[in-house]
Design a protein that fits this description.
Length: 364
């Protein structure tokens, strides 16, 4: 896998496991967790050992490979193995609801599995190397998409740009390199990024824990700010552009991303600061006309009431903890993809109609 970042891979397939960089422990500990089964992978996605829309798609594709490896090992090519695999694949597919990259990758793997085993009568043993190759291909495609996003996005920035970002849309959240951070990496390599402002990103601190750590690994200047500071910063002319990633983009350009992104977009609009989304085609969901159909994950209360073992709110208090919000298309200056930059009114139909969509597999 090629990228010019110095980051360790967030996800890696090995001959006997899938290694995940445990993102819950960063930045204090760099530890890899070996995952051996599809249910283990589903739990790792739920627990956010691996997180970020493209990375969980890649991890789930490898989860399908692990399921098939185990089926071949345990049951050989018994008739029941395919049906058992379908249950494991469903668990992977349902592990997180908002990032469409997850469903896209799982359905792409399952579509190939079905075609090989059901339509072409291959044994699981013979199908396995083709499924491994497909999962590795999904991973490599994502890195290449990120690199292209970086090249397209860097052209949008002024000299010495000061860029505000939210959450982590970097190498840790993707196959490597990153979407929003891919643009930042490319701009920095061209000598055109003077500072990155990383929102802390409550409640899981992906900005202060992950984005800050990731950018520091590559020597890119970064300043951590808390989520409520964007108004003050833009009022004081400290930000030239905002760039974030996305978890799901509807056909009209409405874009779901980490909770707090919408607020940032509103502040950017109020101050005339361009607000960009950077995402690969696997993040697009043309089956949804607009934001009304995007499922928003609600996570557990303890993410808000505690940091580690320490309570930061009274025990028993009511908590509302949606993991994502949706930035309406009219607040988005441009959407940076591997195919180029799209501007409002958004119409992706000509460019993304060849991309395999989850729905096509579900309906079979
Ligand atoms: O809950 P997370 O950490 O998985 O949320 C991640 C984000 O919101 C990212 O910005 C998004 O997935 C894009 S990653 C390239």
């Amino acid at each position: 896998m090629t990228s010019f970042s110095h980051m360790p891979p967030a996800v890696e397939l090995t001959p006997d496991a899938c290694l995940l960089l445990d993102q819950r422990l960063l930045p204090t500990e760099v530890k890899f967790v070996p995952i051996h089964t599809a249910p283990e992978m589903a739990n790792a996605i739920v627990d956010m050992i691996v997180r970020g829309a493209p990375a969980i798609g890649i991890a789930a594709a490898y989860g399908v490979v692990l399921a098939v490896r185990n089926a071949v090992h345990d049951a050989g090519d018994a008739d029941c193995a395919y049906e058992y695999l379908q249950r494991e694949i469903k668990t992977l597919r349902q592990s997180r609801p908002t990032a469409v990259n997850l469903m896209w990758a799982v359905d792409r793997m399952n579509g190939l599995l079905r075609s090989l085993v059901k339509e072409n009568a291959l044994s699981l043993t013979d199908a396995l190397p083709k499924l491994e190759a497909e999962a590795l291909h999904i991973h490599q495609e994502d890195i290449e998409a990120n690199l292209a996003i970086g090249r397209h996005g860097a052209k949008l920035l002024p000299e010495n740009a000061r860029i505000h970002t939210h959450c982590n849309a970097g190498a840790l959240a993707t196959g490597g390199h990153g979407t929003a951070l891919g643009v930042i990496r490319e701009a920095f390599a061209q000598g055109r990024c003077s500072m990155v402002y990383a929102d802390e990103t409550r409640p899981r601190q992906q900005g202060s824990r992950l984005t800050a750590w990731e950018l520091m690994q590559d020597g890119i200047p970064v300043t951590v700010v808390t989520d409520g500071m964007s108004g003050l910063m833009m009022q004081n002319n400290m930000v030239d552009a905002v760039i974030t990633g996305a978890d799901r983009i509807a056909a009209n350009g409405d874009s779901a991303n980490k909770i707090g992104t919408y607020n940032l977009a509103l502040v950017a609009k109020a101050h005339g600061v361009p607000f960009y989304i950077a995402a690969p085609s696997s993040t697009f969901d043309p089956t949804l006309a607009d934001r009304s159909g995007i499922p928003i994950e609600e996570r557990c209360a303890s993410e808000v009431t505690q940091i580690g073992e320490t309570w930061t709110a009274p025990q028993g208090v009511a908590v509302f903890n949606p993991g994502f919000d949706v930035t309406p298309a009219d607040l988005i200056t441009g959407i940076i993809t591997e195919k180029g930059v799209f501007y409002p009114p958004y119409d992706f139909s000509k460019d993304f109609d060849t991309v395999v969509r989850p729905q096509e597999y579900i309906s079979k």
